[in-house]
Specification:
Two copies of one chain form a homodimer. The first copy, chain A, has 213 residues and is mainly alpha-helical. Helix content of chain A is 68%, strand content 0%. Chain A is elongated. Chains A and B meet through helix 6, helix 7, helix 8 and helix 9 of A and helix 6, helix 7, helix 8 and helix 9 of B. Chain A binds a DNA duplex (30 and 30 nucleotides) through helix 3.
Chain lengths: 213, 213
Amino acid sequence: MNTTSRAAAPRRLPPEQRERSIVDGAIALARESGLEALTLRAVAAKVGVTPALVAHYRPVMEAFVAEVFTAIVAAERDEVIASYDPALDLRANLLRLIETLLDDARDDVAMVWVQSWALGVRNEALAARVRAEMDLWQTALEELISGALAETSGAGVDAASSAWMLLAMVDGMSAHSLVRWAPRDRAALARRTLAAVLDVSAETTAAPAGIDR
Amino acid sequence: MNTTSRAAAPRRLPPEQRERSIVDGAIALARESGLEALTLRAVAAKVGVTPALVAHYRPVMEAFVAEVFTAIVAAERDEVIASYDPALDLRANLLRLIETLLDDARDDVAMVWVQSWALGVRNEALAARVRAEMDLWQTALEELISGALAETSGAGVDAASSAWMLLAMVDGMSAHSLVRWAPRDRAALARRTLAAVLDVSAETTAAPAGIDR
DNA sequence: TCGACTATTGAACAGGTGATCAACAGGTGC
DNA sequence: GCACCTGTTGATCACCTGTTCAATAGTCGA
């Protein structure tokens, strides 16, 4: 009932099925305990097989870590981006997006990201995947932002660098949350973050909850 | 001429001197290769002594890592804060500060920070030190920012949350730099970052324009 | 039913980690 | 010059890591 959550799998599975089982187990493990917890033996225990079998399906652990990273963050990105609500304007959607990314419930993915930057220093395969995923985030955000700027009167604001700043800010806050260093009101911070990035006066939203001063 | 940069130390040293030698070696090693490289044997090799001697002076490695972290980032903070130039106004000083923090030359300290967040998940002693250092940064920045806001017309901007955002943004960019994901012009980004945090129109040069909505 | 194919295992390897401790040896005081 | 004190070492422990490979055993087709 702890780490060995999955019962020992049936003795012999078709390769595709076993492979999926191992990859899924690794993804679940990384979500729970971070990318650093992805050891051959830990994955094997999680899935209920021998370390040698994990090594059989994923011979190079470094590459496996990179693969798991991509699977996790790509899924998250798809999910977050897909939660776009056409009924709302772009600015409201952006705010929702930031709130989602800063949500405590996403601390598992935050841990994966932070560890990916640290591990990327010595795992170049991982670093390349990290850059690719960040490019995708940057592109997606830039698109949303330039749309939001067009809605409001955001002339003179560079959407690309806004996206860059937004990513940096969200990622920085994620990193901080790993050591539990966070401000009291994350929602207020999300609004302030958006305002800062879109370079508008702090209180645009007519403040249903005044941010304070 | 490589990692064993220091010649083997004289056979027997007074404890304070030996201790300092070991701590200094560990700090140098962490700067070069990150906190994760701080192993008993690596530090010993760096200083030119036996692993057992390192363990003798620092019996618990986890605590030693936390200590080295504090030494490195506290020194950096002191240095950066001390480079305040009274001849310039506060905003200019803030800009210089951001530029300094984003400078490539500080990638070593950036690596220490990012690894500290990742390691802090499992090293609570380290996490506590990290929070303490971040508090000090936050306080120092908040002071500078509130001063800058008083100089210019920064009414309505909350200095505390500005400091928070600035830290997040700088830290996020540091994390990104570890996997070499960075924009071309860091100086321009520093200006844009400052403008965003102080909540002023994006292009202070071009559009001193009215902040609309 | 039996053979072939192959998924899976157990065991071992070489290398890494932090930590411990009896024994050695340099320096100082007598 | 000798003895004590203690800084320092070498060896060893238990445990971790990824990787390899011969041997086992499940399953399917003939």
